[in-house]
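Table 4 source record.
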Amino acid sequence: MLFMLIVKASRNSEAGNLPSPELMEAMTKYNEELVEAGVRVMAKGLHPSSNGLRISFPNPGEKPVVTEGPFTESNDLVAGFILIDVKSREEAIEWAMRMPDPQGYGEGQIEVRQVF
């Protein structure tokens, strides 16, 4: 079963602030554990929303609307993700619970979603 561990953005990630060396080391160790267990499919971080854009479809049948970043609602944004292949939802939750605070500063938030 594929699950995506979605790392939510924070003020710090949106500002482009890199994690502390200690957090980088903890995340590296966590990713190594995922690889050693054979469950990690992919893990990537994303640039801040100031480098992104949104395409919305407000009116059916009309042209989409493009909005350039940055976007102000950082709690609705994604800073990165880890895709894992595990046997159950419970195992996905166990792996998510082992992840260090991905933002540091007490701002970290992880969303766990199953992939179709």
